[in-house]
Amino acid sequence: MHRLRTTVARLRPLTAAQAAKSPAQPRTARAGLRTVQPRRQQNTSASAEPFLNGTSSNYVEEMYYAWLENPRNVHQSWDVFFRNANAGALPGAAYQSPPPLSRGSQGPAGVQALGGIQPNVDKLVEDHLAVQSLIRAYQVRGHHIAKLDPLDISCVDFDDTPCTFGYQNVEVCKDRLRSLAVEGFYGLTECDLDKVFRLPTTTFIGGNESSLPLREIIRRLETAYCQHIGVEFMFINDMDQCQWIRQRFETPGVVQIRLEEKRTLLARMIRSTRFEEFLQRKWSSEKRFGLEGCESLIPALKTIIDQSSESGVDSVILGMPHRGRLNVLANVIRKELEQIFCQFDSKLEAADEGSGDVKYHLGMYHKRMNRVSDRLVTMSLMANPSHLEAVDPVVQGKTKAEQFYRGDAEGRRVMSILLHGDAAFAGQGVVYETFHLSDLPSYTTHGTVHVVVNNQIGFTTDPRMARSSPYPTDVARVVNAPIFHVNADDPEAVMYVCKVAAQWRNAFHKDVVVDLVCYRRNGHNEMDEPMFTQPLMYKKIRQQKGVLHTFAEKLIDEGVVSTQEYEEEVATYDRICEEAYARSKDEKILHSRHWLDSPWPGFFNLEGQPKSMSCPSTGISEEELGHIGHIAASVPVEDFTIHAGLSRILKGRANMVSQRLCDWALGEYMAFGSLLKGGVHVRLSGQDVERGTFSHRHHILHDQNVDKRICVPMNHISPDQAPYTVCNSSLSEYGVLGFELGFAMSSPNALVLWEAQFGDFHNTAQCIIDQFISSGQAKWVRHNGIVLLLPHGMEGMGPEHSSARPERFLQMCNDDPDVFPPLTEDFAVRQLYDCNWMVVNCSTPANYFHVLRRQILLPFRKPLVAFTPKSLLRHPEAKSSFDDMLAGTHFQRLIPDQGPAADAPGSVKRIIFCTGKIYYELTRERKNRSMEGDVAVVRLEQLSPFPFDLVRAEAERYPAADLVWCQEEHKNQGYYEYVKPRIRTTTNRTRPVWYAGRGPAAAPATGNKHTHLTELQRLLDSALDLEVKPGTGSRGPGPGAAHLHTVQ
Ligand SMILES: Cc1ncc(C[n+]2csc(CCOP(=O)(O)OP(=O)(O)O)c2C)c(N)n1
Ligand SMILES: [Mg+2]
C-alpha cells in the first residue's frame, strides 16, 4: 500500500506534456522524481481509485514510467488516467472507464479525455496486473524453487519453521512452493498461456522484445530464477541495483560461458579435486578439512579474482575457515606445494621463534601474474585461529589500511574476499558486526565478496538445529547485499554468479554473497564418522558422483574437450603434485616466516630481526610542544562557531600551555601530534572517541550553526604531516577491535589505537585479545603494535564501569615470574622484545605521552595494553610539566618516590608499591597523616614486562622497609597475583611482601557509593598503618574488607 501511495504521489510533478517533450530515460526520470515533493500525497486516497491496490502498484508504476517515456507506450485508458492525474484530478476522478470516454469528456473540468473504447479493458488490465505480479513473484521468490541442492534433500520452508532439513519433508515442501504456478494465485489459466503480454520495464526477459506470450514469459522466468541459481535481491532498496541484477540474470542467454572459459574451468576443477585426492593418498590419517563436495570453490574464487583483476584490483585479502584452506593455498594463492606438503611432516624442526600453528590456520602472502587478466595480483590469506569468523573484521581492517595507504578511496585496487561455513556464518555474531562496518565511512572496504561453503552441516549439526532463518546467508540482508545461491555441482553456474558478484562489487562497491550450496563428502574432518548423526544424508552422499566426473563428462559430450585431453590434464597435475612431494622430502626445517600474511618490507633486517635493540628518547622539543599545544587549544579554520563550553576547555588548554603543563588530554595530543608531524599515521577508533567518553578529548569540533561541519585541528599541525583519523565506531567491540588489529597489521608506521568505552567492555572482544593480540606473534611470527586504551579505576560507579580487568591481561603475559632476567645493557628494550605484549598503567600525562611514542620509536612492534584513567583526566595533580616531555626524556617504567622518604631512605619503614590512580589517594592520605618520611610510595607504570631491575633497586634503596603491594581492586583481581611472585623474585625471596587492598570478591566493584568509599578508606588505613605486622592477617571478613598480610 505504501508503495502504491508513493506511486500515486509521484504522478503529480511531471506533466505528460513535459514528459513527452523530453522522452527521458526511465532512470533519469526516476532520479528526478525522487527529489520532488509528493504534492498529491495528502489529497489522493488510493482507495478512491478502484483498481489501485497493493498488488497492482508495481504494474501501475511500470505503466507510469512507460507513459513518461512516451504516452503512446501505454494503453489509451492509462494515458487518460495519467494525464488526468497530472492535471490535478481529484481522488477517484483520474480514472475514467472506457465507455464514458467515448461519449466525451467526463473527467474533471478542463481535462481533455482521450482514447477510444476497449471492450475488455477491465480483463486486460487485470491480466496485465496478474502477469506483472507473476514476474515479480519469480523475482522475489524464484530462489525458493530453484534447484540449489546437489543432494536434493534440503528444504527451506519459508512459511513456518524457517529451516527444515531431511528426506521426509522434500515432497511436502515442493507442493507448498507451487504458488508460482499459473493456476494458483494469479488468476491466470491455461487459456491465457498463448496470449501476448506487454513486459514491464522491470524485467529483461524479453531481450529485444517488449511483449511475449505468457507461456514464454514463464519459461524464461523459470530459466532465469529456478534452475541452478537462486537470486535473492528484491529486498534491496535501490531500484538501479535491482535493475542491474535483473539484467544480469534475466537477459536471454546471459549465463552462457565461452568455450575457452569452460576449458579453464575444467582445468581448475581438476586441480581442486586432484589436490584433495593426492593429500588423501599420501596422508590418509591426517586432518586436512578437505574440500570434497565443494570442489567448485576453487574456480569460484579464481573467477572472482580474475574478474576483479580485470577491473583494476591488484591486491586481494582473503579470510577463510578450515574447510578447503590447503586447497585455496595451493590453487588460488599458489603457495609452493612442497611448502604445504612439508607441513604434514611433524618431525621438521622450526627455524624461527614462536610456537607455530596447525597447517590449516596459517596465513600466506604471494604476488603473481593473473593469467586471465595479464596483470600482477598480490594475494594474502590471513592467518586465523580456530574461532570461526573471528578473522572477518581483521581482514576488513587490513584491507581498509591498504586502501588508505594507497589512496584507494573507492576500493578500486584493494579488495577483500571472506569465506564462511554455513553454520558459522549464521551462528557467529561477529559476522553481523562486520557487516555493519561495511558502509561506515571510516571502516568501509567498499564491498566484500562473501563466499559461503554451504555444505548443509556444521560438524554434526543439521541446519534445522543451527539457525532460525531459512538460509545461512540471511544475515547479509541487513546491509542490502544481494545473495546468489548456486548449486555447487554446476561449475558453470558457479562461475557465472562469481563473475556477477565481482562485477557487482566493481559497480556498486557494496558487499555481495555467493552461497555455494554443496555437501561434505567426508565427516567434519577426514577421521570423523558422519553416519553416526546424518545417516540418510550420507547414504545419499555416497551415491553422489563427484562433480569433476560429471562436469568432465558434460564437456566431453559437448565436444569442448576430448577424453584424452581431459586425462592428460589430470595426469599433468598429478605429476606436479608427485614432484613437489619428492622435493618436500628434502626440506629439513620449517620456516614460519614463509607463512607471513603481512610482510613489512624494510622494517626488519634481512634475517627478519629488528635493526637495533635500543629505543631513542621519546621526548620532543619545547617548540614542538608549544606548537602542538597551540593547535590543541585553537580552532584552526575561519568562521567556525564552537560551543561555549568547548571554548572554555580550549582556553584552559591555552592556559596550561602557557604554564608549560599538560593534562591527560593534552599529553595525548602531544603524542599524536608529534607522531603525525613525523609522518606517522595515527588512527584512533572506538565508541565515542572523537569527543571522548569523558568529554576530555574533543578531537573533532562541530560548528554550532552548520550541520555536519566539522574541524579536526590535529590535521592542521603541519603541511607535510601524516593524516589523522579519529572515528566513532559502531557499538561493537569484537568487530571493531578486530578491525583495528587488521589495520595495524598492514604497516608498522602507524599508531593504531582502539579505546573501549569503559575498560570492562573489552570482554566482548575477548576472542580478538586471546586469539590474536596476546598470542598472534607466537603463532604466526607476525608483529603488531596495536594499542588498547582501557579506562579503568574504582570510582564508585558500580561493578560494570570500574575494572578493565587487569588480572586477565597480566595472566596472559609470558614473562617468567620466578626468573630474574639477565641484566644486560639493553635490558629494558630486550624485555619488550621478548614479551608477547606490554601492559602499562600510567599515572602521569607525560608518561602516557612517552609510552605512545615509544610504540613507534621501538625497532619492533608489540601490542600495548594501557589502562587509562577517568577521574585523573581532571585531577589537579595529574599534570605533567613540559620538562618531563623534552628531548632526552623517556618513558618511566617505574616512578620512584621523590619526597622526604627518598631523601632519607634509611629511616623509611614501608615501601608501598602501587600502580595507577591509587597513587594519588595514597599520597594524599600519607600527607594527611604526615608520614612522608616514613612511607615511600613507588609507582609501577609498566606492569609487564615487569621492571625487575627497577623494583630491585627500590627495595635495596630502603633496606629497613616493609614491602607492601597496594591496590584498589579486589584481591583476586587487579595486579596482585601478577606482581606478588615477581616482587619476591627481585629480593631473592628474602623479604616478605604484604598485601593492602580489598578482599576477594566475585564482582569487580560494589554498586553502592558509600560502601565504595568505606572500602577505600579501609584499604588506605591498612596500607598506612605501620602497626600492623606480619601474621595478623585480614582485618575483617567479606569482600569489602581491607587485607594486610604476608605473601609467602
Ligand atoms: C567460534 C567457534 N565455535 C566452535 C568451533 C568448533 N567448530 C569447528 S568447525 C565447526 C563446524 C563449522 O561448521 P560450518 O561453519 O558449517 O563449516 P564446515 O565445517 O561445515 O565447513 C565447529 C562447531 C569453532 N571452531 N569456532
Ligand atoms: Mg557447514
Automatic annotation (TrEMBL):
<keyword id="KW-0786">Thiamine pyrophosphate</keyword>
<keyword id="KW-0479">Metal-binding</keyword>
<feature type="region of interest" description="Disordered">
    <location>
        <begin position="1027"/>
        <end position="1048"/>
    </location>
</feature>
<dbReference type="InterPro" id="IPR011603">
    <property type="entry name" value="2oxoglutarate_DH_E1"/>
</dbReference>
<dbReference type="GO" id="GO:0006099">
    <property type="term" value="P:tricarboxylic acid cycle"/>
</dbReference>
<dbReference type="Pfam" id="PF00676">
    <property type="entry name" value="E1_dh"/>
</dbReference>
<feature type="compositionally biased region" description="Polar residues">
    <location>
        <begin position="38"/>
        <end position="50"/>
    </location>
</feature>
<dbReference type="GO" id="GO:0046872">
    <property type="term" value="F:metal ion binding"/>
</dbReference>
<keyword id="KW-1017">Isopeptide bond</keyword>
<protein>
    <recommendedName>
        <fullName>2-oxoglutarate dehydrogenase complex component E1</fullName>
        <ecNumber>1.2.4.2</ecNumber>
    </recommendedName>
</protein>
<keyword id="KW-0560">Oxidoreductase</keyword>
<keyword id="KW-0496">Mitochondrion</keyword>
<dbReference type="Pfam" id="PF02779">
    <property type="entry name" value="Transket_pyr"/>
</dbReference>
<dbReference type="GO" id="GO:0005739">
    <property type="term" value="C:mitochondrion"/>
</dbReference>
<dbReference type="GO" id="GO:0005634">
    <property type="term" value="C:nucleus"/>
</dbReference>
<dbReference type="GO" id="GO:0045252">
    <property type="term" value="C:oxoglutarate dehydrogenase complex"/>
</dbReference>
<keyword id="KW-0832">Ubl conjugation</keyword>
<dbReference type="InterPro" id="IPR031717">
    <property type="entry name" value="ODO-1/KGD_C"/>
</dbReference>
<keyword id="KW-0809">Transit peptide</keyword>
<feature type="region of interest" description="Disordered">
    <location>
        <begin position="16"/>
        <end position="50"/>
    </location>
</feature>
<comment type="similarity">
    <text>Belongs to the alpha-ketoglutarate dehydrogenase family.</text>
</comment>
<dbReference type="InterPro" id="IPR029061">
    <property type="entry name" value="THDP-binding"/>
</dbReference>
<dbReference type="InterPro" id="IPR001017">
    <property type="entry name" value="DH_E1"/>
</dbReference>
<keyword id="KW-0460">Magnesium</keyword>
<dbReference type="GO" id="GO:0030976">
    <property type="term" value="F:thiamine pyrophosphate binding"/>
</dbReference>
<keyword id="KW-0324">Glycolysis</keyword>
<dbReference type="Pfam" id="PF16078">
    <property type="entry name" value="2-oxogl_dehyd_N"/>
</dbReference>
<dbReference type="InterPro" id="IPR042179">
    <property type="entry name" value="KGD_C_sf"/>
</dbReference>
<feature type="domain" description="Transketolase-like pyrimidine-binding">
    <location>
        <begin position="662"/>
        <end position="875"/>
    </location>
</feature>
<dbReference type="InterPro" id="IPR032106">
    <property type="entry name" value="2-oxogl_dehyd_N"/>
</dbReference>
<dbReference type="Pfam" id="PF16870">
    <property type="entry name" value="OxoGdeHyase_C"/>
</dbReference>
<keyword id="KW-0539">Nucleus</keyword>
<dbReference type="GO" id="GO:0004591">
    <property type="term" value="F:oxoglutarate dehydrogenase (succinyl-transferring) activity"/>
</dbReference>
<keyword id="KW-0106">Calcium</keyword>
<dbReference type="InterPro" id="IPR005475">
    <property type="entry name" value="Transketolase-like_Pyr-bd"/>
</dbReference>
<dbReference type="GO" id="GO:0006096">
    <property type="term" value="P:glycolytic process"/>
</dbReference>
